Structures are given as C-alpha cells and as structure tokens.
Amino acid sequence: MGPVDLALVEFEDGSFDGEIVTALAELVDLGTIAILDLLMVSKQADGSVDVIELADAEKVIADRFADLDGEVMWLLSTEDVSAAADALQPGSIGVLIVWENLWARNLRAAVNRASGKLVIHDRLDTDEVAAAIESTTGV
Asked: What is the model's pLDDT at position 82?
C-alpha cells in the first residue's frame, strides 16, 4: 500500500455544494488516490452532531457523491468521528475522508527493497510555504 491519509474538510454554515467531489473524482480517475472511507459530520448551532454515512444520506447529498469511486472500508472509528465533531465549528458540515496515496506505491516499494525506512514525515502548511517562497523569490 501507499501512505494513507485522513482529513477533515469543514464547510462553514453547512455550505457544502459538492465541488470537492469533482476534485476527488479526478484524483481517483488519474490513479493518484483511492478512497478508503468517507462520511459527513454535521455540527448544529447548539453543538449537537449528526454523522451521515453516504448510504444513509438524503438523495441530494448522495447524488453529489454518485460519481466518486471508492470503497467504504469502515476504517473511521468512533474516536475519529468524535475528534472531527470537536474540531468542527457549530453550524458547519465536514467531510471526513481516508484515502490511500497510490502515487507513492512504487516509491515506497523502492525504499523497502533498499532496506530504507521513513524516519520523518510531516505535512507543511501550504500558506506558510507559499509565504516563504514569496519572501525569497518575490513571486
């Protein structure tokens, strides 16, 4: 397998319009990622939380995900959902997603064959990276 990521994307004021699905479907179609699990978490203004599995979602939401190929592997735990709910702002909706980075399979296999191992891995904040690039290049 390639590396697996988990992400929560928040949409303020419940303004999920489905555009993220198009971007995800493109990555799946290109063989860049494989969707392993996905669900939606809605946090009401009063702080109450609803978990929405796509199979149980209202038709309008389910239709937005209809073209997204992937397997629901039931990887997301109660703790994952609880952490997502805690992270969301009241009145928002979040998409909690787990994907495999297919693009890294060959690299990972090559590292393993060479008896290498991953020692440090971190995800850098894109805004900070962009600001650093701008400060050094003026672009």
From this structure: 93
- Count CA atoms closer than 13 A to 14's CA, side-chain side: 10
Question: Is the distance from CB of 10 to CB of 89 less than 8 angstroms?
Answer: yes
- Please state, in angstroms and as integers, the Cα–Cα distance from residue 86 to each residue in 90, 101, 126, following that order: 10, 26, 23
Tens of pLDDT along 71-82? 666 788 899 999
The length of the chain, given as a count of residues: 139
Structure tokens at 86: 């805690």
Q: How far is CA 46 from CA 52, 88, 92, 105, 116, in A?
A: 18, 12, 11, 43, 50
pTM comes to 0.80
pLDDT at residue 65 in the model: 73
Q: What is the edge-to-edge ordering of all strands in the sheet holding 4-11?
A: 4-11, 92-101, 33-43, 49-53
Report the candidate in 1, 4, 33, 31 with the shortest Cα–Cα distance to residue 112. 1
For residue 35, give the nearest of 81, 71, 84, 80 by alpha carbon.
71
Largest alpha-carbon pair distance within the chain? Answer: 54
